[in-house]
């Protein structure tokens, strides 16, 4: 179920990217502290990439992600990166270590793949909520109502509607 939720979430982002021009994707929005939709998308992608690429060695450090500027300026590159994640995200749960710190390890704690996958999903939804603020400037862009909304909020809203 978790992997399916991650895949569905990433497919929502791909659907959005297919509608954006590279100019819209890389435009710096005042409402996003002069960040772009592309920068937020790259951030989502690179955390997933970091998790997946370090799965085998068992040590995850999100501070050491690549920060590839092409992913934040070209929708086609962002889509390719997400499609790669979609093809590699389904893995068995296993114990991992997560480290913090770029030059020296400041913190190291036990975690596992599913915990980090859930973290990445929640992190993605958070950034999608920010992206949604920028998308409101483009009325021609269509996103689902639940884009950037946590699953618990969706469930709560459904309960309130009954």
Count every beta strand, where a strand is a DSSP E run of 2 or more residues.
5
CATH topology descriptor: Four Helix Bundle (Hemerythrin (Met), subunit A)
Q: Numbering strands along the chain, what is their spatial order in the largest sheet?
A: 3-4-5
Largest sheet: 3 strands, mixed
Estimate percent helicity: 55-70%
Mean pLDDT: 94
Spatial extent as radius of gyration: 16 Å
Number of domains: 1
Q: Calculate the terminal CA-CA distance, rounded to whole Å.
A: 25 Å
Short description:
By secondary structure, the protein is mainly α. 56% of the residues lie in helices and 11% in strands. The chain contains seven helices and five strands; from the N terminus they run ααββαβααββαα.
Which short descriptors sum up this protein?
162 residues; DinB/YfiT-like; Four Helix Bundle (Hemerythrin (Met), subunit A); 5 strands; two-stranded antiparallel sheet; 56% helix; 3-stranded mixed beta sheet; mainly alpha; globular
Structural description of this entry:
This is DinB family protein. This protein is mainly alpha-helical and 162 residues long. It has a single domain, classed as Up-down Bundle (Four Helix Bundle (Hemerythrin (Met), subunit A)), CATH 1.20.120. The chain contains seven helices and five strands, in the order H-H-E-E-H-E-H-H-E-E-H-H. Helix 1 (2-17) runs antiparallel to helix 5. It is globular, with a radius of gyration of 16 Å. The model has no long low-confidence stretch (mean pLDDT 94).
């Amino acid at each position: 179920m978790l992997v399916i939720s991650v895949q569905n979430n990433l497919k929502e982002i791909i659907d959005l990217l297919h509608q954006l021009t590279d100019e819209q994707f890389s435009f710096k929005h005042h409402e996003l502290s002069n960040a772009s939709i592309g920068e937020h998308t790259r951030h989502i992608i690179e955390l997933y990439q970091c998790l997946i690429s370090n799965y085998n060695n068992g040590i995850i450090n999100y501070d050491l992600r690549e920060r590839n500027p092409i992913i934040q300026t070209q929708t086609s590159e962002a889509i390719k990166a997400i499609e790669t994640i979609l093809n590699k995200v389904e893995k068995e749960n296993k114990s991992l270590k997560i480290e913090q710190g770029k030059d020296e390890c400041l913190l190291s704690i036990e975690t596992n793949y599913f915990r980090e996958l859930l973290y990445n999903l929640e992190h993605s939804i958070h950034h999608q909520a920010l992206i949604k603020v920028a998308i409101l400037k483009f009325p021609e862009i269509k996103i689902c109502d639940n884009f950037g909304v946590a699953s618990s909020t969706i469930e709560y809203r459904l309960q309130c509607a009954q």
